[in-house]
């Protein structure tokens, strides 16, 4: 599909696409739109940034246009479930943008962190599209402000994130309230077993679309690891922020408390930053995001959950102040930079206790990440050959294998590949239980760099900027962009 005209979308939708200057469908759109138009259930493996939202929103708008029905009171015709309020807001905005000439079209949000009464009013007369986070949706149902028995199309977005955030139970509850006769579209960046199972239960003979193995995001980001001591992380972060050429940086911490601590530490070092996490009010979050977007603040500290769905262009750097214990989170995090073909940098701090996390991450992305050793005590004697150079600034000659000999793998796994032949365990040895088969692909174990190397050398030579294994990553348009305050439900 080279043009949106070939889909036969209703005229008001084509007009909105022309207004947006969308000319060519992205790969996920080319695959998904005809399937959804034909009424099939779809399971899609796709990340944010691939044009996934339009892939489901456009054929849904077409359905609403061609099958006009007045939504019943306290009901919605289309239900989109998303894991975070930010993402829900963005999905709602996309429906409004693509549906700006489609009438009637009421789009409502049901998200936590804002008063429920406005949301009760917004669905009272029925809406075409409701975008919701699972908890608030269930609250509305429990308060008898909403019924779900009229839903014609269900979209579940970022299903793997829903799982990470503990929403699976809520999703099952929601699905049980929906009519059996419906169309279901299910999107996830990864397909771990539990998600595949959920899809199996929710979908009816689904067509499968996939735009790329999720791990390939890693290939275009310039990744580095700095081995450090836990106590040195604050000063190390200040040093990185002062020495790197940074446009916008997203710093990830494991906890909300950790995020606030980092802000305070940076303040002491004379660096301005803001934290965004679930303890902040919706207003605070929106203000901080607006400042980050406009460039008023350059450094945003976030937890995984809060950062999910933050759609800000021009993030030049991601810093993993804490390494995530779920390797897929690492891929999500670094995917926040290097969008639309831009070269992004991801710097990860790894202390002694995080070494097993680093190994899991490298196994998932099938790459060794070059490391620099800045531990104050220097390399552990049993881990480093004696006399291997400047202890504090040395570029590790064995990229990505900081703690060889360390046997503290998770779950009693014996981590193959420590020591000389460490590349062997990558790819084929990945035992993360992901059912999509990507990890056993052609570029499995053999691609891992062993000698001193740069991340650039690890990328496939034929890769063009902006393309990832056949996926084109798109930049969200800055204009026209509503500010977040306008995203609240009317
Ligand atoms: P998404 O993956 O849905 O977050 O989309 C990423 C960005 O790509 C959004 O800002 C969309 O506005 C933009 N986009 C989606 N589809 C297209 C397209 N076919 N042509 C140009 N931009 C697009």
How does this structure look, described?
The protein has helices spanning 11-20, 27-37, 52-66, 85-98, 116-124, 134-142, 159-164, 168-177, 193-202, 233-243, 256-268, 282-294, 304-307, 327-334, 355-365, 455-458; strands spanning 42-45, 76-81, 107-110, 127-132, 153-156, 183-188, 207-210, 221-227, 249-252, 274-276, 299-302, 317-320, 344-350, 371-373, 467-468, 471-472. With 490 residues, the protein is an alpha/beta fold. The protein folds into three domains: 4-210, Rossmann fold (3-Layer(aba) Sandwich), CATH 3.40.50.300; 221-373, P-loop containing nucleotide triphosphate hydrolases (Rossmann fold, 3-Layer(aba) Sandwich); 414-475, no CATH class. β10, α12 and β11 (299-302) form a beta-alpha-beta unit. The two termini are 37 Å apart. Adenosine monophosphate (AMP) binds at residues 22, 24-26, 29, 48-54, 474, 476-477. Adenosine monophosphate (AMP) binds next to α3.
Task: Provide keyphrases for this structure.
seven-stranded parallel beta sheet; Rossmann fold; disordered C terminus; binds adenosine monophosphate; globular; 490 residues; alpha/beta; 16 strands; 16 helices
Uncertain runs are 380-490
What's the arrangement of strands in the largest beta sheet?
A: 3-4-2-5-6-1-7
Number of structurally distinct domains: 3
**CA-based shape:** globular
SS-based structural class?
alpha/beta
Total of helices: 16
Radius of gyration: 23 Å
Strand content: 5-15%
How does CATH name the architecture of the largest domain?
3-Layer(aba) Sandwich
Number of strands: 16
The N- to C-terminal Cα distance equals: 37 Å
Range of helix content: 25-40%
Q: What oligomeric state do these chains adopt?
A: single chain
Largest sheet: number of strands, sense, barrel closure? 7 strands, parallel
Instruction: Look at the structure and give the mean pLDDT.
Output: 78
């Amino acid at each position: 599909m080279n043009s949106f005209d070939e889909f036969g979308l209703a005229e008001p939708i084509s007009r909105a696409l022309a207004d947006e200057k969308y000319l060519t469908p992205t790969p996920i759109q080319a695959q998904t739109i005809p399937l959804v138009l034909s009424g099939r259930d779809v399971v899609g493996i796709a990340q944010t940034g691939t044009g996934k939202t339009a892939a489901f929103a456009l054929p849904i708008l077409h359905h609403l246009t061609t099958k006009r029905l007045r939504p019943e009171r306290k009901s919605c015709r289309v239900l989109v479930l998303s894991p975070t309020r930010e993402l829900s807001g963005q999905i709602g905005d996309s429906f409004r943008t693509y549906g700006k000439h489609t009438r009637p079209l009421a789009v409502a949000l049901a998200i936590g962190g804002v008063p429920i009464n406005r949301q009760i009013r917004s669905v009272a007369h029925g809406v075409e599209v409701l975008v919701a986070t699972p908890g608030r949706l269930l609250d509305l149902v429990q308060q008898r402000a909403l019924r779900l028995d009229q839903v014609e199309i269900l979209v579940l977005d970022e299903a793997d994130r829903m799982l990470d955030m503990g929403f699976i139970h809520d999703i099952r509850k929601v699905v049980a309230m929906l009519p059996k006769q419906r169309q279901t579209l299910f999107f996830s960046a990864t397909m771990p077993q539990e998600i595949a199972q959920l899809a199996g239960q929710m979908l009816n003979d689904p067509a499968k679309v996939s735009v790329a193995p999720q791990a390939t995001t890693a290939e275009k980001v310039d990744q580095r690891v700095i081995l450090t001591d836990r106590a040195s992380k604050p000063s190390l972060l200040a040093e990185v922020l002062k020495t790197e050429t940074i446009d916008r940086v997203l710093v990830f911490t494991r906890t909300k408390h950790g995020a606030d601590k980092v802000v305070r530490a940076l303040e002491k070092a004379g660096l301005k930053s803001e934290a965004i996490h679930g303890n902040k009010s919706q207003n605070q979050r929106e203000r901080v995001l607006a400042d980050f977007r406009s460039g008023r603040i350059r450094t945003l500290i976030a937890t995984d959950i809060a950062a999910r769905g933050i759609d800000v262009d021009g993030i030049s750097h991601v810093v993993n102040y804490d390494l995530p214990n779920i390797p897929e989170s690492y891929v999500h995090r670094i995917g926040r930079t290097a969008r639309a073909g831009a070269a992004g940098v991801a710097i990860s701090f790894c202390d002694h206790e995080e070494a097993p996390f680093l190994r899991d991450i490298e196994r998932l992305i099938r790459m060794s990440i070059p490391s620099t050793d800045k531990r104050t005590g220097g390399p552990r004697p049993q881990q480093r050959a004696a006399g291997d150079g400047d202890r504090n600034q040395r570029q590790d000659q064995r990229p990505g294998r900081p703690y060889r000999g360390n046997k503290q793998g998770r779950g009693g796994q014996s981590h193959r590949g420590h020591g000389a032949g460490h590349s062997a365990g990558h790819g084929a040895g990945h035992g993360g239980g992901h059912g999509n088969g990507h990890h056993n692909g052609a570029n499995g174990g053999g691609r891992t760099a062993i000698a001193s190397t740069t991340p650039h050398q690890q990328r496939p030579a034929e890769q063009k900027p902006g393309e990832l294994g056949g996926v084109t990553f798109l930049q969200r348009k800055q204009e026209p962009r509503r500010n977040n305050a306008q995203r609240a439900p009317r």
